[in-house]
């Protein structure tokens, strides 16, 4: 089974997301994906290929929760997207992301 490969980028200066950056032209990021990768003001996050229980696409950097109200940050580590790769589609709910919702990660 294949998954769609796409990326979004968080602009640390302008505090906004650019979506589908590998196929987008923008005055700030240009029209070359390598420009996006080389831009130190942008944090590139990959789509996991999974959607949450509400049909929302899950990306690296998203904050998700499970049935038990446990909260996690989606990260690519050791060849997989943790922790969501360990469970089937639909048990997660995206509740924010690390850039726009850092308060979700406070104890």
Characterize the structure shown.
This protein is mainly β and 107 residues long. It is built from one helix and nine strands; from the N terminus they run E-E-H-E-E-E-E-E-E-E. It has one helix spanning 33-38; strands spanning 7-11, 16-19, 42-51, 57-59, 62-65, 71-73, 75-77, 80-82, 93-97. The strands form three sheets. It has a four-stranded antiparallel β-sheet with strand order 2-1-3-4. Strands 6-5-9 form a three-stranded antiparallel β-sheet, with no helix packed on it. The longest helix has 6 residues, at 33-38. The termini are far apart.
- Largest sheet strand order: 2-1-3-4
Run of helices and strands? EEHEEEEEEE
Mean pLDDT equals 85
Total beta strands = 9
**Tally the helices: what do you get?**
1
Unreliable segments (pLDDT under 50, ≥5 consecutive)? Answer: none
Question: Brief overview, please?
Answer:
The chain is mainly beta.
């Amino acid at each position: 089974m294949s998954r769609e490969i796409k990326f979004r980028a968080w602009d640390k200066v302008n505090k906004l997301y650019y979506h589908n950056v590998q196929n987008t032209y923008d005055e700030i990021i240009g029209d070359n994906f390598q420009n996006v990768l080389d831009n130190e003001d942008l944090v590139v996050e990959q789509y996991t290929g999974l959607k949450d229980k509400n049909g929302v696409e899950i990306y690296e950097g998203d904050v998700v929760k499970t049935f038990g109200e446990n909260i996690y940050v989606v990260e690519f580590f050791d060849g997989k997207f943790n922790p969501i790769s360990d469970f089937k589609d639909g048990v997660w709910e995206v509740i924010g992301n690390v850039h726009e919702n850092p308060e979700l990660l406070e104890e």
